[in-house]
UniProtKB/TrEMBL annotation:
PROSITE patterns: PGM_PMM. Keywords: Isomerase, Magnesium, Metal-binding, Phosphoprotein. Its cofactor is Mg(2+). It comes from the Bacteria. Residues 43-182, 206-305, 317-436 form the Alpha-D-phosphohexomutase alpha/beta/alpha domain. One of its GO terms (molecular function) is magnesium ion binding. Pfam families: PGM_PMM_I, PGM_PMM_II, PGM_PMM_III. CDD domains: PGM2. Belongs to the phosphohexose mutase family. GO terms for biological process: carbohydrate metabolic process; purine ribonucleoside salvage. This is Phospho-sugar mutase.
Amino acid sequence: MDNILDTAKSWLTDFFDPAVKKEIQHLINTDTEELKDRFYKNMEFGTGGMRGIMGVGTNRINKYTLGKSTQGLSNYLNKVYSGEEIKVVIAFDCRHNSDTLARTVAEVFSANGIQVCLFSELRTTPELSFAVRHLNCHAGIVLTASHNPPEYNGYKVYWTDGGQIVPPQDGEIITEINSLSFEDIKFNANVDLIKVIDKEVDEAFIEASVANGNFGADGKDNFKIVFTSLHGTSITAIPEVLRRAGYKNVTVIGEQATPDGNFPTVQSPNPEEPEALSMAIKKAEETGADMVVGTDPDSDRLGIAVRNLEGKMEIVNGNQAMVLMTKFLLEKQKQKGFSGNEFIATTIVSTPMMEAMAKAYAVEFKTALTGFKWIGKMIKDFPDSQFIGGGEESFGYMVGDFVRDKDAVTSTLLACEIAAQAKANGSSFYKDLIDCYVEYGFYKEYLVSITKKGMSGAEEIKQMLKDFKDNPVASVGGSKVKWIEDYNTSIAKNVLTGEEKSIDIPKSNVLIYETEDGTRIAARPSGTEPKVKFYISTNTTLNKAENYDQVSTQLDAKIKSILSELNLD
């Protein structure tokens, strides 16, 4: 506790604002536990950049923690691009303080002699990724906490390719940041270096999104969409993208169309949570719409609901949406002709069905750690290969490579193209998905997410994962465990034969069990939230579409049994 108190007292110097000093002194005097949580560690970069609760302290998002990161990034840019005129682009979302924090970040860059293109108002994360290359910038920043609760904010860093920072840049930047004290931050802006941007970049991004996501689907005049931005940034792009692509029957949920960092109409602005789409689904049932789409605050994730076999709206999960989007893109590429250098990609905790589909189309399949920055890195690392599309189970997808991050704007258009064409063909989005299960195998996934907050929570998460590794299960769902993949040691071991294989993916705190029947259980801590996540994937054959309900029920029962076995129910 002494170290924590010393760290807190270091924020009582004249460098810090009077209001900050007053709040810290109050915490020192009255609230030891809150003081500990705010100062027991420094805010760190995770799989999605830097993200956390806003407030005063080293373990909070504020002008000083973001300023220090920006100062470190400025120092790094000035070293790597010495002698060049360095330029960065900055965007921000709807969250509280995002606009003022974005301005602070811009001022620190400018104080270090770096030119800044600052969006005038909130914009989507995919547009920021696009803007990095469109404006020939050296780096990009977006102020967002994605789908986290209202008290959060964050800071994602993008490199010259438009993708999030990856090794070695991330480690080198973090080293630079950690070498600084808060007093090293240059807050005195050079306003001549800050340029405000908006419509010219918007127009280029929207044109590119339509060009990449519009496949001239039939039946658009008879296809009804309900769209909700969940109080976030996608309202600035998706309605216009759909209009330009020819969709006329689009109902926008007005109660959720105004950007609002409180997210007043939802428990969580996360389209992974079924409740987030409840208002839109209700409207779809009233209007007879074919599809519901909702996006998270910075518009990199999308949730989709479509009509099931009984005609009721049903949410499809991220794995299901990814499979059907990838299938559609592969089919379109097949019609044009494969060149032999195409690949699709996903993450190690997403559905294995992606690999089965890649084999069927004879295209390369690549897997990465969780976090879209790793998929972006693949594109950079293999410049002679063509990225068709790819995604992850957590409701993110990327169409082509004009954006180097998950892109709910273009993915929304792609989902509508698939569904409109299916309807015109006498099928549906849902029926096409079942056809994929018949063709490639019926894979069904389930996620268990356990939240553990604060310093004690971090220790609990660490212990849960240690227990999962130290006490390996011998069988899951009646099938013997065959492979244990330990991404901390980069070794996959066949526990039945003793065979070992190296894992050619950066080290990470992930452990995966795979059984003889292909059931997979993965465990990892979240990189952006105080959570530990367990991913379950099961599969079987589906001989014909008519057996879908029966086989789906069987897989549900198997998942339920596995949850009970692992004490996760």
